[in-house]
C-alpha cells in the first residue's frame, strides 16, 4: 500500500513531465517578452547557483580541505618539513585513538536512537492528541535545545558529586555517581540533547501529514500496527534527518566530551583532537589525520541516510487540504503522560538548571550555602561583562539570517536536483558536519592566513568577518539537515500551480513555496541563532582581538577564579536565548498571515 | 560603567602620582627609565595597533592604561594560554600578534627555539632576586611577576594537620583527598609537573611520584577553578593549584588556607615579542613591557584583578607584594630550566593524560 501511494506521487511529479510542461507553456506563448523573462530567470538562477557554490567553496571546502591536507603535507602550512607523508596516519592507528573513535561511534549511535525514540511519541502527543498543556510542553522543548551541552554536564556533575547537591540533602548514593559519571550518563546527556533536533524535524513533517493515509489504511481493513507501517515510512525523511542530525551532533559535540566524559575518564574523539591541538606545541598534522577518520566514520552513515531519503519521493505537501482528527486521551492516560513529561523535563532541564543556577548564586567556590546575587550584580554592573553577550547576540542574528538562506537553497538542491552536483553537495556537507568546531577553526587559520593573501591585501584572520563566516559554515550542515525533511515534502505542484496562474518565479516562490515552509525556516533560524550564541571552539581561535563573544568571556571566568560570575553569565545568556525564541515565535504568530500558519499544516476536526 | 571608568581613572592618577613622587635610589633609576621611555615614545610617530595576546586577568586594565598614557592603540586578544599558543602555532607562517603575555617560561623557550621571538631586549629596570632567576640568558622574554606552582590549599575546618611535604601526600591519610589540574588543559600546571620531576631528579622519578599519587586516589580537574570548586564542595581536602588562584579563593572563602610545600616552582608571567612583527609594533611592544615593569604599570597589575592574577610576587625592586600574599621567608623555591623542560612539554603532558588522567 505504501509503495502504491509513493509511486502515485512520484509519477505525478516526474522531472521529465515538468520539463515538458514548461516547454509546452513556452511554445504556447511565443512572445518576445516571455522569452526574455525566461532568459532573465535562467541567468538569475545561474548567478544564484554560482553564488551558492562560491559560499560553499570559500566557507567550507577551502578550510576543511586545508586542514585535511595538513595530514599529508605539513610543510605546505609551515607545520613540518615534509611536503608529502603518510606518517601522521600511522601515528593515529594506536589503541588510544582507536578507543576514542570507537567510543564516539557507539555513544553517538545510541544518543541518536534515544533522540528519535523519544521524539516520535512527543511529536505525536503535541500534534495529534488533546493532551493538556501541550503548548507549554512543546515550548519547553526549546529549553532543552537552548542550553549548550556543557551546562547540563556541569549541572549533573554538581548534582551527583559525592559532596554535591544530592549529598547535601542526604539523598546521595554511590550508584548515582557511578551511573552518571560514565558511558550511561554521556549517552543520556547527548541523547537528551538530540531529542529537540529530532522532535523539530519530525513535528515539522507531522504537521504537514493529513489523516487521509490513516483513513485509507483503515478503510482497507488495516490494523493499528499496519496503519503505523503506512504512516511511519511517509515520515521517513524526517526520522532519518533526526537520526542523522543526532548522530552528527553527538559525535562532533565538545561540551560533554570536555566535561562529563573527561571527568569520567571516557575519551571521545573530539576531546582527543582537542588534546592534540591544545597540547604545546600542538600536533596539527596528527589531529588532521585523526580528523580524516572521524570524517569517514560520520560520512558513511550520513551518506546512507541521504541515499535512502533521496531514493524515493516523500512529497506530501501539495495544494490539497488536510484534516486530522485529534486523538482524545482518557484521564488516566493524560495523567500518566503528564507525569512522564514532567519527569523528562526535570531530567533534561531541571537538574542541570538547579546545578548551574545554584553555582551562580554562591559567592565563593561553593563551600557555604549562603545565597547571594552578587555574581548577577557584577554581570550587569561591571564594565566589560555585558558587552560580550551583546556582541554574541549580534553575531548570532547575522549568522542565523545568512545560514537559513544558504541552507534553504542547499536543502532544495539536495532534494530536487539529481546528478553529480547534488552528490558533491551532499559529500561536502557530510564531511563538514563531522569536523569538530576546533578543527574547523584551525582550518580557517591555515586557509585564510596564508602569507600570499596578506601580500595581496586580504587580511581576514582575526576579523569579525572571518568569525561570522566560520559560524555560518559550522551551523550550515545541521541547518540543511533540519530543513531537508520539510523541503523534501514540498511538492513542485505548488510552484507549478502558481506559475500556471501567471506568477513570476520570485512571486510564485514567495506565494507558493515559502508559506508552507515558513515555520520550518523560522525554526531553523532560531536553531542557528541559539547554537551560535554560546558557541565556543570556533570563537576561541577566530574571534577578533578586543571583541570577545560571550562564550570566551564565560570560559575565561569559569576556568579561572570567577566561577560564580561565569555561571551567572551562562544563565543570563541562556535566558536571553529563550527570550529571543519566545519573541520570534510571538512575532511569527502576529506578523505571518493566518494562511501561512495553516498551509502545510493540518486542520483539526 | 561610568563609575568603573571613573574608579580606573582615579586609580591611574594615583598611580602616576606615586610614580612621580618616588624618591629612593631605585625610584630615581625608574625616573631615568621613564625618561628613556619618553624618548622612545617620541620616536613612535603614527603608531600602529599593538596586538597583545594575553591570558592575564589584569591585561585589560594594563593595556587601557598604556594606551591612555602613550596614545598607542592596543588590540587585546584576552584568552586562555592554550588557545593563544594554538593561534600562534597555526599562524606562524603569517603571524598577526605583536606581544604575548602569559604565565610560564617553558612556552616561551619553545617559541624561542622556533625563532619566533626577538632577542636581546631587556627593560631598564632593577630586577629583584625572583626576577633575576626568571630572566633568560638571551633576553628573549621579560618576566613581569611570579606566582608559585603549586600552592597547597586546604579547608582549615576539615584539615587540622595539613601535609608538610610532597611525600606525605602519598600516605593513606590523604587517599582520595588530593586534587590537581590537568597539565594539558591548565597552562600553569605543566611547570608544576616539570618542577616535581626536576626536584625528584628525573622524568622517570617524577612519573613514579605521580603514578603513586594516582594510586592514592589523585583527583584531576581541568583547571584551577574546578579544582578549587572540588575543594569547596568537599570532594577533596587538599588542592594543588596556582598560588594566585589559591590566595584569591582564600580571600573569598575564609575557611581556605594557603601553604607552600618545599620546594615550590617559580612560575613567571612573561612577555615575549614577535620577531616577524613590523618594527614599529616591536618598538611599541618594548615600550609596553617597560611600562608594565614601571611603578605605574605594576600598580595597575596589582589592582587589575584583585582576587586573581594580581596576587603575584613582584620581580622588580621597590614594589611590594599585596598584603594577602603569604611571606616567602622559609619557603624553598626552584626555577626550572625552560630550555630543558620546554621541549618535553608535549611528551610529559601526553604521558600524564594517558597514565594519570585516564
Describe what you observe in this structure.
The complex is a heterodimer of chains A (605) and B (358). By secondary structure, chain A is mainly α. In chain A, α5 (95-128) packs across α16, α10 (183-207) runs antiparallel to α13 and α20 packs across α28 (550-559). A two-stranded parallel sheet of chain A has the order 1-2. Chain A is 76% helix and 1% strand. Chain A has helices at 2-12, 15-28, 32-70, 87-92, 95-128, 134-146, 150-160, 165-168, 174-180, 183-207, 212-219, 224-234, 236-252, 255-258, 260-263, 269-278, 284-311, 331-360, 374-381, 387-416, 420-434, 437-448, 451-455, 464-489, 492-500, 505-533, 537-542, 550-559, 563-591, 594-598; strands at 323-324, 603-604. Chain A has a single domain, classed as MetI-like fold, CATH 1.10.3720. Chain A is globular, with a radius of gyration of 25 Å. Chain B is an alpha/beta fold. Chain B has two domains: 2-147 and 268-304, Periplasmic binding protein-like II (D-Maltodextrin-Binding Protein, domain 2, 3-Layer(aba) Sandwich), CATH 3.40.190; 148-266 and 334-357, 3-Layer(aba) Sandwich (D-Maltodextrin-Binding Protein, domain 2), CATH 3.40.190. Chain B is built from 14 helices and nine strands. In chain B, α3 (59-70) packs antiparallel against α12 (295-304). Mean pLDDT of chain B is 86; it is low at 1-42. The chains are: A mainly alpha (605), B alpha/beta (358). Chains A and B meet through α16, α22, α23 and α28 of A and β1, β2, α4, α9 and α10 of B.
